[in-house]
Amino acid sequence: MKPSSSKKKLKTLSIHPRGFSLRAQSIEPPPIAWLMEQKLKRPNLISLAAGFTDPETLPVEETGHIVHAWTQHKSQAREILQYGTGSGREHLRILTARRIADLDQMPSTGKTHDPSKVLITHGSQQFLYLVTEALCDPGDIVLIESPTYFVYLSILKYFGIQSRSIPLQPDGMDIQHLEEQLEALKKSGQIKRLKMIYLVSYFQNPTSRNTSLAKKKAMMDLARRYESAAGHPIYLLEDAAYRELSFGQTPPAPSMLSLPGASKRVIYSGTYSKPFATGIRVGFGISPSPLHQTLCHLKGNQDFGTAEFLQAILEKALSSGTYDRHLGVIRKGYAKKSDRMCRMIQRHFPASVSWHPPEGGLYVWARLPQPNQTGPQSALFKASLKANVLYVPGCYAFGDDVLGPERQEAMRLSFGNANLKMIDEGIRRLGEVIQSIMKRTS
Amino acid sequence: MKPSSSKKKLKTLSIHPRGFSLRAQSIEPPPIAWLMEQKLKRPNLISLAAGFTDPETLPVEETGHIVHAWTQHKSQAREILQYGTGSGREHLRILTARRIADLDQMPSTGKTHDPSKVLITHGSQQFLYLVTEALCDPGDIVLIESPTYFVYLSILKYFGIQSRSIPLQPDGMDIQHLEEQLEALKKSGQIKRLKMIYLVSYFQNPTSRNTSLAKKKAMMDLARRYESAAGHPIYLLEDAAYRELSFGQTPPAPSMLSLPGASKRVIYSGTYSKPFATGIRVGFGISPSPLHQTLCHLKGNQDFGTAEFLQAILEKALSSGTYDRHLGVIRKGYAKKSDRMCRMIQRHFPASVSWHPPEGGLYVWARLPQPNQTGPQSALFKASLKANVLYVPGCYAFGDDVLGPERQEAMRLSFGNANLKMIDEGIRRLGEVIQSIMKRTS
Predict the structure, then answer these.
(1) Closest residue in chain A to residue B20, using alpha carbons only
(2) Domains recognised in chain B with CATH numbers
(3) Check: complex ipTM more than 0.90
(4) Cβ of B302 and A83 within 8 Å?
């Protein structure tokens, strides 16, 4: 009875004293905004929270060179200071399709890695938003990893979408659980409302886990198997935001775009922001053709298209080799910082805290033993803030259907923005806080 | 009976064969996208259609200097290549509030021109979209000028909003008609669904008309008078996109932000894209506080915030005087091109075509005598395309409730992107096409 009573409540609220729309009335400030503001407001705070990137290695000179070269070629420069098309610059779309095909070890760009299916967006966040808007009505269902990318949970909530959590294992979603969930949705008839399975497949935010190719295949098989019951494609939204931030030499598994049947149901979301510069917000997505068209129209309505100037900087960085050189530098940098964070955790955290060393990405996911809690109202979080160190409480990364203790036991620690000294000091302080809180609760 | 039957139709469609959301199913490609693509696809086409800006005067060197200077100040540069906050850079918000206060001849930034109420967006299109999303549910009502900015009509349609057209006179909306409309809405009880009055108050797109201060006051008075019946503020969304593109020395009328009562109901939308560079998409809006907060949350969901790099370029251009110097250059340039277009129209168009010379902006609005039609299916439009010249058919600028002949008789001609030679040739060709079509219909 709960959903219908909340619907009634919305109806009663429909004449808001300020005239706001129903959806706007229910929007909550996203936790990311609050966490980002803490960092920007308190310069002395050591933030191991926000997914900001490393400031030391930002491509200042590279960007300067690219822009300076344009001043020597005025006609080219004029083109990039002008409006463009909604889907994005053609050359950037070609470079993007080719790049993902290379990463997927595909011989050519082919049916799935197709420039005409690439949409350039204002960060990959915008792409995730557009996809969700294009596919989901209020009450629709999206299956998510548990834990998952917490900003995406805000998008789902905003659209009134039901998320169903599938436990995440070291190599990806628990496939048996996924199958049980699909079967249950089929039996209840709700599978018609299931639109997507969302996975963050590389160095996942927040756990840094990778989804194996075997699990990607199993997910694809399951999606295809349950589509006739659904009456429409069950889309696989693969968020590959951290794919290029690997520390090792072995490339992580190919994306789902490389699998048979991908052209009908795989939606690939990627970004150039985190690998290059988050201040130059360029993300992208590859989708099945009919969906791609709709996404272009939606984006046209929202902002006409991504700023040409930003797109052109990335285009130049990619085609000149600047991007790849830069990537080499930051991979090494993040590997070093990750290693440092892990060593410090080993030194300062109690042995009962469980975590594993990441092989890429920006995060360490640490779980405290029961009954310690990490939430924003917990003694631990408050004591950490008092010690001027900030983490992301793990609870933000769980869907509303997860009520167990795992919701309250974890923290996401980022080595993205902090330098080595801050990592040392931040983890030391946090270790002290954890030790003292655990002493109290034991 | 029509609305409910169309609702039923949507319900039946709810399981779309591709799983699209109800809203996405109904989206149509915006006419602007189609028009822009024509221009980009056919290099020989003389486009007097799209609102592209002048390529010759784009600030190539200015932008190069700004970016180059950053490479000398690495710590500053790093900040602008990083994520920022959802509402936008503080300094840019301060500069923006001060700039609009100056334009409004206000002594200080005060209660309405308040940096904390400024939201920086990815072009003003995004701001208009966010405001509409925040205020309107499907079935809500927005009063619009007739004709109005055609891209905004796409936004209204997408959100399922009813637009009610108020005829535009040379100095703004027909106030008597506006009052009658408000009274009718009050009588029918529908005024509770009325959320906004939307006006493009400076060098309007498409007519280049300005709204006088007297009319702004009258609109404000009417909005206030009918608010108790509405049960919430009736917002005045003032789209000032072309405000800075005036040709003369006399500044156009102050904005509605300067009027008593503005802080509760005026939403001001502005842009730096058209005056500076459309490839550097930075727009902004000023709104009453509670609405501003909601807009920030919505933007956080959609894209986290506008790219710092773009914001920082504008910030520097504004604070260094580069922006104002550039504005001086492009104003003169557009004045010259406008003058040339008017002289060519006078020479080549039949005297029975009515139009008036603009005092700013990018457009001439020309109306043909009955029974000539200008729509995309008309003989005139097709013959123009064949002659390789493109205009915006006037019909795109009218709400669905306008059925009279004015819908089919006008064209919007832009002198924004075309150079003098193209204006000469484009208007000459168009004049020939009009003459020949009018001969046929007379």
Answers:
(1) A135
(2) 2-58+327-441 (3.90.1150.10), 82-323 (3.40.640.10)
(3) yes
(4) no
